[in-house]
Amino acid sequence: MSRKSKFITSFVILILALLAAFSFFHASAQGKSSKNITVGAVGSDAKAWQYIAKSDAAKKAGLKITVKTFTDGVSLNQATADGTIDVNAFQSYAYYVAYNQTHKSSKLAVLGNTYLEPMGIYSGQYHKLSELPDGATIAIPNDPANTSRALKLLASVNLITLKSGFGSLSGTSEIKDNPHNFKFKEIDSKTGPRVEKDSNIDAVLIGNTTALEAGLNVLKDSLAHEKIDQTTKDNINILATANKNKDNSDYKKLVALYHDKDVQAYIKKAFDGTKVEVNKPVSYLTD
After folding, report:
1. Which CATH number, 3.40.190.10, 1.25.40.10, 1.10.3720.10, 3.40.1280.10, labels domain 36-116+239-286?
2. How far apart are the first and last CA of the chain?
3. Distance (Å) of CA 33 to CA 26, 61, 249
4. Whole-model pTM?
5. C-alpha angle 62/65/68, rounded to 5°?
6. Per-residue pLDDT tens over the stretch 217-270
């Protein structure tokens, strides 16, 4: 073999070795990311994801999931945006939209949807909506996404009507008609179950995560609650990640994991059917 041929052969071998080494390290890096995903959750969602982390479905997907519990959504979204948390599971689509509007330099992205956890109307004094007196005081959550959500629920049961431009972040100023002259008191959503027992409050609207923690079942204990239809799609819960990770294939596997048949059977039993599965494309939320 000539010196030139030997040089070409050695050069080709070197290139092949470098490509093999690159492929190895790239695969190792991919393997590492696929095995370790930190999911942040609030309230009952943490319990669901702790089960998912130990599930056979997670093992088959090759994912090692660590669940970290947070007490409030704002800090969890911020931790997700800065990369401390990879994916979070706690918020409705409307809550996500509100967060992105006020945190434009650290936006999040939707990976997929999970369930509708109905908001309910509760009362410690009355057993039917028709019993609510004129001039009753109704407590509603004070964060924009849930304020709007509460007012939409009241409108859906014909207690009030809303202006035509009412949106996912609208408030009481966008009420068109209030025929019963209800008074609205805005409260921290976490205090809803305690407010229900306040004799000065006639009814209170509570999200189901908070209701569950207080031993309330929205399907059984509320005077009325949300249904799954186009009017409540903003209230569907999502999995969210930092905007830069929106195309991460490993993170997207979490959506399929949530909707796994065995996982859903556990969730239905553990939460008494109050986390109503919604398995639709992300486009469903925006169309």
Report:
1. 3.40.190.10
2. 67
3. 11, 12, 10
4. 0.74
5. 175
6. 999 999 999 998 888 999 999 999 999 999 999 999 999 999 999 999 999 999
